[in-house]
Amino acid sequence: MTLTDELEECLKDSPRFRASLEVVDMGVGDLETKLDKLVKLCGGMIEAGKAYNVANKLFLGSIKELASHCHKDQLLVDTLKHFSEGLEELVGYHLILYDQAQRCIRTNLQTFIKEDMKGFKESRRSFERAADELEMTVVRHAQVPRTRPHEAEEACNLYLAARKSYRHAALEHLIQTHDLQSKNKLVVLDSVCSYLRAQFTFFHQGYDWLNDLEPEMKQLAVKLDEFRQVASQERKEMEARHVSVEMQDPCWREATIELRPDISQGVVLEGYLFKRASNAFKTWNRRWFSIQSKQLVYQKKYKEPVTVVVEDLRLCSVKPVEETERRFCFEVTSPPAKTCVLQADSEKLRELWVRAVQTSINFAYNDTEDRQEEQAETSPRQQPSSEDTNLQVNQLGMGASSDTLQQNPGVTTHLAVISQPPKCSALRRIQAVRGNQYCCDCGREDARWASINLGVSLCIECSGIHRSLGVHLSKVRSLTLDTWEPELIKLMCELGNSEINKIYESNIESSTLKKPVPESSCKERETWIRAKYVERRFLCPRPRGAKPGVYRKEGSNVDEAGVQQDDEQAETEPGVKHRQKTAVSEHKNGKEEGRSEAELKEGSEDCVEWDAGLALHGAARCGDLRALALAIAHGGDVNYVHRTAEGTTPLIQAVIGNSLAVCEFLLQNGAKVNHRDDHGRSPLHHATYLGHTGLRLARMYEEMRESEGPYAQEGDETYHDIFRDFSHLASNEPDRLNRRSFDDTPP
């Protein structure tokens, strides 16, 4: 029906017009119902979106907390932080989308329902009132009789007014109906289009952010693949360790792992031990024990405070216990008569704990003495005069009697100053040598272990590998826990990492094997150390051009010129003149015999193959430790017998040369102390005859320690002090211990 037809029908007030109005009313009612439902659902969607944003913010906050927990992994922290910030931007985009939905759909439709549909309903009610009034007026107009013209005229006027009012109401309602129908279309389409534009903007912004993030996501995917491969490889390695665990002795493995001294933190050894209670039942409880800060302590659980067993290790003693029913027991005794019986898991662990306690006791004493000496050095003290010094030295050299010492108490005090220089820990003295503060093999700083037969300092990782080589190749000792004799410290200071590496790494350029660094793995370290010391892959070829028996010291020649130099030096020291002349004459004879024999064997050849044994022999006589190390590295036999030199060995030659450090070096590398020359004289015989007291003292002290056994306690302090004082004197001032007059005729 067209608009003209509708107007005609409206003016006629035909049934078709009334029917069309009913159809329109039904459509408007249905539209209102659906719009109300849409508005309610839109509101529910917006509320759900806001709840989603709240949950999303909580989720992103949890991601940030996870990033703060993983602060040690910078990659993980940066990635989580960057992604969470981007996701927070997406949450903001969601809020914009919900605001657009609120304004585009909910607000617009609610306005349409409350205003436009309300006007339509009011026009409908006005139309119905006008129609009802017209109907009543028509009825009254029809009922007026002919006999009442005045009533008829009045009824006619009312009828005309009612019809006019009805037509205006009908036209107004028709206009409202058309406005509602046209505006309904506009409002609905505009709301939907606005919402779609909001959705488009939301997804476009999200796409732009994700597009910018795509390169980082690709890089992260590559790193994740690498991490998966590394994790898979580590998983395989961990699974492969099950086999190695079954092959190794668990006690040895535990001892190797736990015994890692760290003096800076005071921890020497820690592990589980059984402790026998002091109650009447004598129950055994397993506790976590540790030696730290000069104390023996234990605790039951990690968070519980530690219980001190021994307050001061200097006041305790330790020894194995064999009288108990349980195996692997040892006891720690401290005053006043307090005994603590402990049980290890194996014999090896018991030995380890006993040795650790004994070493800690020694360290506690040495540390106390070092502090006292530092305080003494900072305070002024009176130095002895030169006359007193000469008197005291003469008394010591000629054997001062006890009466003399009692009459002159000052002699004892001054003797301590002379015979025993201010103590300095082995760590400080050895690391003071250039290169010794770093590990000889990997270069790690603060090396606290050493190989005493090689003369190098090591880190704890490399020391473990050296220990696995066996004592015939490397004897490992701690610079902080073990006791160091003066001659051994002097040996370490005269050799050192720099000199030894010049020998064992002299041909390193020809090898493709890379030297390990502090960050290298244990496998890389072991490969390098075995190639260096076992296979000796980096040694230069044996030198040629030197005749056997003629030793050439680096930078000078030990020949007749060297002998003349020794003679001149001997003239400046009358006290040792005869001894040095005798040694020099013997050295000359030995060299001449060596040359004669070599010339007889080689004929007129000018150059012959360098002999490591002869080099050892000559270097020992001259006291050149570096030449000794070079000869040993090239396979020289430390027990080489020089038949043309009265069957002497390098050790005998070192004794004749009065070099305590050389003797120590040869003994550490397996020299036999009981070998005799052609005249039946051993090295100790030569030392005793020549008056080299320090060499004899070193052997006596070694015999005493061997006789005490592996668990021996410290004996008489005076007894040990005597050995220590004489050892210092023999190492630093050997001429003062020469007890033999060289005017005597040798046997």
TrEMBL record:
Pfam families, sorted: Ank_2 (PF12796), ArfGap (PF01412), BAR_3 (PF16746), PH (PF00169)
Membrane topology field: Peripheral membrane protein
Domain of life: Eukaryota
Keyword set, alphabetical order: ANK repeat, Endosome, GTPase activation, Metal-binding, Repeat, Zinc, Zinc-finger
Compartment list: Endosome membrane
Regulation: GAP activity stimulated by phosphatidylinositol 4,5-bisphosphate (PIP2) and phosphatidic acid.
Biased composition (Polar residues): 377-389
Keyword Repeat among UniProt keywords: yes
Positions of the Arf-GAP domain: 424-548
Annotated InterPro entries: ACAP1/2/3-like, AH/BAR_dom_sf, Ankyrin_rpt, Ankyrin_rpt-contain_sf, ARFGAP/RecO, ArfGAP_dom, ArfGAP_dom_sf, BAR_dom
Chain segments carrying region Disordered: 367-389, 549-601
Function recorded in the entry: GTPase-activating protein for the ADP ribosylation factor family.
Protein name: Arf-GAP with coiled-coil, ANK repeat and PH domain-containing protein
Source species: Eptatretus burgeri (Inshore hagfish)
